Amino acid sequence: MIYHEKRAALEEGPADESQDYNLPQPPAGHEINNRPVRWEPETDGEKGDILEKVRNFKTASQLRELGLYPYFRTISSAQDTEVIIEGQKVLMLGSNSYLGLTNHPEIKAAARAAVDKYGTGCAGSRFLNGSLDIHLELEEALGKLVKKEAVLLYSTGFQVNLGVISALVGKGEYVIGDKSNHASIVEGCLLAQGKFLRFSHKDMAALESRLQRIEPGAGKLVVVDGVFSMEGDVIQLPELCRIAGEHGAAVMVDDAHSIGVLGERGAGTASHFGLTDQVHLIMGTFSKSLASLGGFIASDAETIDYLKHHSRPLIFSASMSPANCAAVLAALKIMAQEPERIAQLWRNTQRMKQGLCDLGFDLGDSKTPILPVYVRDLMVAFKVCKRLQEEGLFVNPVVSPAVAPGQELIRISLMATHTDKQVDFALEKLGKVGKEFGLT
Q: CATH number of the domain that 252 lies in?
């Protein structure tokens, strides 16, 4: 539903054939990472109307009329294992709070204390008047976690990918990404002045083919998710680093869904594979395991210093609020002191995954607490989501552009704080609804 034109930055080839999508989309449109790209309207010399596409957008209203609109559901309670929607308690299986820390009393107390000390905001960017000592404290703590020399905070995770990739990849250089990368990575690649190439999901032969076609002297950055946010699978980082190294490409890993989930002490994908020294840039967010809002990039000191002076989304945005910083610091402390949280997350994941497999659901290649239940039909995804909420479960339907048409799924995500009773309740309801729609 988001349109953007930057065709000059894309190079297609045999390893990346286009797909025919059946979803409603603009005439003569095509897609980048399942993301519709703006089309050239035929005006016949008449004055163009920029709002024409607004008036022609009917998808959301049609779903509302059918009672199947699944977005912007209003929650009137804390983000916990159970939430209140329209006065009804439902089991939350759609949260990214993997460690269950968003409602932790110590984290809330830390945020309140930060407001008392610093106020509610910074009233400026890090570049000018918005750098606080608590920002530096958090950057140091994150550097120790992911074992990188330096760290730079951004106000959101989206801004990290937007600001880092666009600052590093200049004219005559290349950024190469997995076709299932998060939208924020795609936007960063499109904003960069270099050329944006893609390879099929987790296809290392396709990645190598892309790199082989690039002139040896050109700068190259390979960017991937560590854990893919919809599919729940993990990038083959050892092979990717080997291929990138052979072709002189730097590697950047988005660990938004890996921090607090994979690696030593929850340090992420590079730690999980023992490849921290081969991953030049580690990106992470705070809105998932770390119970806050914002993001960071970790690398060597020279790279971070360069980004401080060239990353426009950093320079021209207000800095991360003190309360959010304090919340992350408290979450990092709890994660270090209570390693049993990560262990419990994985126990819950295994219990749910085994139960779903026993029921006959298709979970793809998930290896993480993100469990995709494939339905492979647009309307079925919306209908299943509605039925599950009626049965007391909050889940997320995932459709294009988040996944390719024909790969629609119900995204289930586990938390460390889910109980066995809650997981078993969910399996009972999923089995019931799955049978109704012929998914089991």
A: 3.40.640.10
